[in-house]
Amino acid sequence: MRKPIKTPRRVGKRSNLILQYIRQEKRSTIIKKLDTIFSKIIKKKYQGKCVKCGRAGQGVSHYYSRKHLGTRWEESNCIWVCWACHFHHLEHFKQPGEWYHSYMIKTLGEDGFETLKIKALGITKWSTSDLKILLMHYEREYHL
Ligand SMILES: [Zn+2]
After folding, report:
1. What residues have a C-beta under 5 A from ligand 1, the ion?
2. Residue 11 lies in a domain
3. 31 CA to middle of ligand 1, Å?
4. Which among 91, 43, 83, 84 has a CA at the least distance from the CA of 65?
5. What's the domain range around 120?
6. How far, in Å, is the centroid of ligand 1 from the Cα of 90?
7. Which of 17, 64, 76, 115 could be stapled to 68 by a disulfide with Cβ–Cβ 3.0 to 4.6 Å?
């Protein structure tokens, strides 16, 4: 049998309830919720229009793919696009194309892009609690 997790005595009743809430949800559920809310945030930022062609967009495009956890929920790593542009103009053999790279440099600047690159390619480990806190932050911040 698993030992119950002891919380420090200093932690008050309210904080205890928050900690319990944080621990309750499965990691995969939290990630799914984060992806959903993040997609809504990016859509809102671009008013639902594809950055490349201006038509109605359908989803988020990550410059550094979603497997890079350091930038998976980073606004500067994402744009809102239609699927046609996503597949035909932005990605070439699963790599961001030239247009996408130029767009990133134009919007972030060389330094900003370098910062993003370091964040994406570095090793990022999210604890389940950290993910939950990020989700709570987005939920509160954006009221979506
Ligand atoms: Zn498009």
Report:
1. 50, 52-53, 82, 85
2. no
3. 27
4. 91
5. 38-142
6. 9
7. 64
